Amino acid sequence: MSQACHRTGHSNKGQGKSRNGTRKLRPVQISNFLNLFLHNTCGLCDRATAGALCSACQSQVLADRGQKWLTETRGRVFAWGSYDGSVKRAIAQLKYGKQAQIGDWLGLQLAEAWIAHGLSAAYPRLIAVPIPLAPDRRKQRGYNQAEHIARAFCQRVGYPLQPQGLLRVRETQAQYQLSGRDRVQNLTQAFALSPRWQRSLPQDSIVLVDDIYTTGATIQAATEVLRRSGIRVWGCAAVARAGNGSFARDGAG
After folding, report:
1. Which of 55, 69, 184, 186 is 20 to 30 Å from 31 by CA-CA measure?
2. Quick one: average pLDDT of 230-242?
3. Strand boundaries in the chain, DSSP class E
4. Which residues lie closer than 8 Å to 139 by C-beta, 6 or more apart?
5. Under DSSP, is residue 181 helix (H, G, I), strand (E, B) or coil?
6. What is the pLDDT of residues 182-205, one digit of tens each?
7. Tell me, what's the pLDDT at 75?
């Protein structure tokens, strides 16, 4: 047994050989070998890093995030930070820069803040539903950024994730191009309940998860669809809140 296999406890038996008699490396072995020399790059600055963001960019995002925010004025909304500075840049890279891993990191930060605020203890039985993208937009982007955030959030908090609970059934204009009133009209009949939930409604309340909370039009439209079907909605957990009337490129697009 080779020294490498002795360390892993695996046998060489069954490994293939090339025509000259040397052993072939399996794809996973090649990947592990390359990982010794190749590293991921930071989603914001392109420095080599083991995670989604390098330590310097993580520190900058945390410094720029501002304060946690919880309101019950128009339904419960919990936000990890403010849509500004490096937080704004990180979300832009997540959505438009093909940096899906940033969503995993932001979801973890949202979860840690949720726990620290006592919300996981106060509301131990919630189902997380990410705000969906329209099929064409999801295909163009390659993923739904809210789903990445929600998945990491659920893994840390322990909530079940239902990424297909709510469907986007109508393509809408990008919300950041619209005024507050137009945003509401733009989202009319944009969401629908999934066939699975039409057959059997969930018994626990829903927490909607999104990247940005701006005017609340997206969350309001999704909430109305769920409540009309008899599903309870706790509110929304978002990475960032765009305040003072500034319109962000929010989770509707």
Report:
1. 55
2. 96
3. 40-41, 48-49, 69-71, 76-82, 126-130, 166-168, 191-193, 205-213, 233-241
4. none
5. helix
6. 554 556 568 999 999 999 999 999
7. 78
